[in-house]
Amino acid sequence: MRRSAFFFVTSALVIIGCTATNNAGSDGGGGGGGGGGGGACVPNNNDGTSACQGHTMPCNAGEYCSVNICNAGCLTTANCPNGQFCDMAAATTDNALMKSIGICHFCPVAATDAGSGGGTCDDVHGAYTIKSDPSSSMGCGTSSGECTVTQTGCAVTLACPMGGGTNTVTIDAKDKGTYMGTVTIQGMVVNENCAVSFDNTLGTLLIDCQLTATGGAADCKINGTKK
């Protein structure tokens, strides 16, 4: 069972706290079209970048435009990376836009793919050297360490001692899966929605967590390499 989020959660609160204090102003958009709200799994088939008036560069995939600032999260599926959708099931509110903000992640593993094994996924168990991805949101911090991955069928457990947390996810035939949960830090409830992806050929691991709290969000990523 999951005890807590990975080690980047505490530092991610820095960016969550900042996004709650944006100055009010006109709606800066964030990429129209897309759908996928309300939990409907209809992934984006474009790159997910969007223009942001007053901002020198377009917002990256997984970000939306809040007045003239690119924040982690999504207004619609059009803001999400290719192959991901905007889930509004645990939406927060952007105080500047007064709009609901969702989180981008891969479609959940279908029940038919979530069995106890049967050769529907690769053997990905082992020890992985991990480090923070530089594309993570400001405030996620930089850390490194090791995660031990154990596996029973397609149920994969990731244990990262530096974070004091153990997370279990069922991976599909593409060695991908998701897990969700909440953690309370300094009295603030933080929702986490994490996509886990293994590349068994390269021996790599990516954990991409969308973290949301009242007024903001952060996108924190970890890269892993099998030892």
Strand order in the largest sheet: 8-7-6-5-12-11-10-9
Mean pLDDT: 74
Strand content: 35-45%
Distance between the termini: 25 Å
Count of individual beta strands: 12
Per CATH, what is the topology of the largest domain?
Lipocalin
Main sheet properties: 8 strands, antiparallel
- CATH class category name of the largest domain: Mainly Beta
Shape type: globular
H/E order of the elements?
A: HEEEEEEEEEEEE
The name of the CATH architecture of the largest domain is Beta Barrel
* Low-pLDDT segments, ≥5 res: 1-40, 110-118
Determine the structural class based on helices, strands and strand pairing. Answer: mainly beta
- In the residues, how many domains can be counted? 2
Whole-number radius of gyration?
17 Å
Count helical runs.
Answer: 1
Q: What helical percentage do the residues reach? A: under 10%
